[in-house]
Automatic annotation (TrEMBL):
The chain crosses the membrane at residues 12-38, 64-85. InterPro entries: HATPase_C_sf (IPR036890), HATPase_dom (IPR003594), His_kinase_dom (IPR005467), HisK_dim/P_dom (IPR003661), HisK_dim/P_sf (IPR036097), HssS/ArlS-like (IPR050398), Sig_transdc_His_kin-like_C (IPR004358). It is a multi-pass membrane protein. It comes from Limosilactobacillus equigenerosi DSM 18793 = JCM 14505. Residues 157-374 form the Histidine kinase domain. The keyword Secreted does not apply. Its EC number is 2.7.13.3. This is histidine kinase. It catalyses: ATP + protein L-histidine = ADP + protein N-phospho-L-histidine. CDD domains: HATPase, HisKA. It is an enzyme of class 2 (transferase). GO terms for cellular component: plasma membrane.
Amino acid sequence: MLRLTPREKSSLLFEGILTVIMLGLINLAIFTIVQGFLFDHPEMQVGFFVIRQSFDLGPVHTRIVGYHQVLVLIFIVVDIWVLVWRLKRRKRQYQLDHIIRELHYIAQGHLDHRIDFSLTGREQDVITSVNALVDSAVKSMEEEREIEKSKDELITNVSHDLRTPLTSIIGYLGLIENHQYRSEEEIVEFANIAYTKATQMKTMVEDLFEYTQVQFNDRQLEFQPVDLTQLLDQVAASFELTAQKQGIQIQTHFTLSPLMIEAEASQLGRVFSNLVANALKYGDGATVIKLSANVMDDEAIVDVANDGVPIPARSVNRLFERFYRVESSRSKQTGGAGLGLAIVQSIVEKHHGQVSVMSNQALTTFTVRLPLKQGVSDETKA
């Protein structure tokens, strides 16, 4: 509750005394005018006599009130109303002054400050709106700083990751350029190494481009009905040849077909393509990749599992971090930038879904949960 300062209390007291004096003078003036009017018009006194008679009580015929008593009663009621109205108005003005001072203080850069006193009526609505506005502004500024920080980290990490293969490319091509080779076989070997490193750089750049498109693009997704089972079949077919070369079988299992959800097909295709590609790259010793889909409540649940070497427990919770790799040596061989799973998480979140991973000796399973209808998920969360 707002406490008035001693100065404001004194001013309020002075306002009340001044109002009482002013009203007293007005009452005296009105009373004098009425008396003068009745003195100049004696016939009007008959009417007041009737009023007095109407207030007689009992056989004693005691007159309770006269015209001057009626005027005094009216004066008291009106004066009390005016006095309360003026004091309330003055107090409200002081309250608004306090709110304005708090606003000036916040505007000076003290964004961690909030108006902590409470009032009643519209003033409290103003306080609530101001605090909500400041909270919203602070949140927007923090999000903006996070975006800028994220972009800076992205540039730093990409520069670091690209520098290594680029240095190798320049080094081996420099050997060829300066004729620092002993035979044509060495030229071919140096060229092959440079080509491999260039391919890794191309993969990194493509991953980076895909991640920035997903993460920093404010475009709203265009949700349309999509048959999830058909989409998963297409993803499985697109990786079938690559999987056969690695001795891996891709299996699909659907409890419901068709399984219709609201999504953007191209974006969702990226999700499952990245998960299958991740299993092919890092699922050492895997013999099978399983894609399964079912429905639970208002969600579609898709599992992408492989029976390769399990992910270390210390790494499971960090898999979806940008540029995180379970083993740097494996990433060097595959040329990954550590962005594939971060892209998966970003797209799934834009579909108002969730992605998680569980790994044990039997299977490493990535689970994607997606709402069947986009509106249902939002309402449930609200």
